[in-house]
Amino acid sequence: MGNRTKERLGRIDTDTNLHNKLLKYCRLNYGEVWTDPISGHKVGVIDATYPEAVKKLFDGQRATLLINDPPYNIDVGNVNTKHLFKIKIEKYIEFSKKWINSSLQILDENAHFYVWLGADYRENFQPLPDFMILMRDYSELKPRNFITMRNQRGYGTQKNWMWIRQELLHYIKGNPQFNVVYTDIPKILKGGYYKKVKGKKTDTSQRSKSNTIRPGNVWVDIQQVFYRMEENVPGCYAQKPIKAITRIIETSSKPGDLITDFFAHSGTTLIAGELTGRKVYTFDVDPVFAEITIRRLEHYRQTGKTGWQWHNPFTETD
User: Fold this and answer.
1) Do 206 and 62 share a structural domain?
2) 115 pLDDT more than 50
3) Does any domain span residue 318?
């Protein structure tokens, strides 16, 4: 059955030799785009900070939903790498301005804009507050919500609270539609507001007509991805769960819409779009992650599986 205690592919962004080895199996070079012949998805090797390259990919089309997961400007896993980098906050804000400007030129007049971010308490919680202040400069984008997703595993020391959260900022352009969805689990939180109904004391959740709840802006029902889960993509550090991206897509777009992700990484947005009937344009500056994104879609169509669990996406290297 093989070794089930370790992924078959190490963390790609920290292993230069591994990264260079995988490059020869990538079908795209910088500036090139793969177009899906079945659903019309696009995957490119593009730098999100170059507006003209992004504009060329969209070719006049507009996205109704953007879900970006850029580098957090934090030493991810205590490692500073080329693509998950930590730089001076001033340079990070300039980097952010560039990809935001690229985003604005391809967003529909009514669109949702989501961005995942981190907060490093060792650096005055940057870049989260700096990014939020930056967003004040973009009058086209109005703040809508501040979402926290809970991780099952955290990090920290015995001298601090365990850090188990990920931040998600939600902005809107114009007046886009928002669709109500419900979780797929029974209510897990009591309402906290009691009143008597027909002589019986009840809380808020007991009075609801549904046995599930609408997600709020604190998500506690989503499993953090790890190597024993089918959707896991070995080599991709800290990938987002399909359920989280699907929730965003289902609430903030409709079937047939064009949605986008400027930082493809493990290809989760592409898979979530395929599962929900949306067309996805996504790209990454690194050919290896663009290749993984394409392979993940092909793998899903061939096997019905959303990832490789602990197995190697690059079977050529086994």
Assistant:
1) no
2) yes
3) no
